[in-house]
């Protein structure tokens, strides 16, 4: 399964590895190897980390805490204290090392460092009063994303993921109804 990085923030992208949370959740991280692939695919994180079962469990706990806090933020309610503790605890760990070279930035560190980086990304976006956090407008998607568009008029987590599907469904509905295209 390919991972989607459409949320505008790595922590929200991690939370988005569970899709359709409402009725039929689909989890893209089914074991430590999936997590290793996700970290390698995510910009700004080390290319190669090793995940054991304990760290994998920590990553999933962090993911669910990030999702809960983002949802709290979207719904305009106080943050869940247990989720705050999880995110703050992960963020207290050392972060990956970065080195600039002609080929760009090289990020290195272990999985705990990667999780710390993710937790700090979550804190940065959740603490920003101007950050426009939204839940995807496609029924059932449940992905939370950061809307950076001008005027914050984005409706879907991603065009490829949801926008085109909604538009195609609307087009088919209009065709069936015999209405204008
Ligand atoms: Zn979506």
From TrEMBL:
<dbReference type="InterPro" id="IPR010852">
    <property type="entry name" value="ABATE"/>
</dbReference>
<dbReference type="InterPro" id="IPR021005">
    <property type="entry name" value="Znf_CGNR"/>
</dbReference>
<dbReference type="InterPro" id="IPR023286">
    <property type="entry name" value="ABATE_dom_sf"/>
</dbReference>
<dbReference type="Pfam" id="PF07336">
    <property type="entry name" value="ABATE"/>
</dbReference>
<dbReference type="Pfam" id="PF11706">
    <property type="entry name" value="zf-CGNR"/>
</dbReference>
<feature type="domain" description="Zinc finger CGNR">
    <location>
        <begin position="133"/>
        <end position="175"/>
    </location>
</feature>
<protein>
    <recommendedName>
        <fullName>Zinc finger CGNR domain-containing protein</fullName>
    </recommendedName>
</protein>
């Amino acid at each position: 399964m390919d991972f989607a990085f459409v949320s505008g923030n790595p922590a929200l992208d991690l939370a988005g590895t569970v899709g359709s949370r409402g009725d039929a959740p689909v989890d893209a991280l089914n074991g430590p190897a999936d997590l290793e692939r996700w970290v390698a695919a995510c910009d700004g994180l080390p290319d190669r980390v090793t995940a054991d079962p304990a760290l994998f469990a920590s990553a999933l706990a962090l993911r669910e805490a990030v999702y809960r806090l983002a949802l709290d933020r979207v719904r305009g309610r106080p943050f869940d204290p247990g989720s705050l503790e999880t995110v703050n605890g992960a963020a207290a760990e050392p972060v990956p090392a970065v080195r600039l070279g002609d080929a760009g930035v090289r990020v290195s560190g272990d999985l705990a460092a990667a999780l710390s980086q993710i937790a700090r990304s979550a804190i940065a976006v959740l603490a920003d009063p101007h950050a426009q956090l939204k839940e995807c407008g496609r029924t059932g998607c449940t992905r939370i994303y950061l809307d950076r568009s001008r005027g914050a008029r984005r409706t879907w987590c991603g065009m490829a993921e949801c926008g085109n599907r909604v538009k195609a469904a609307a087009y088919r509905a209009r065709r069936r109804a015999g209405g204008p295209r």
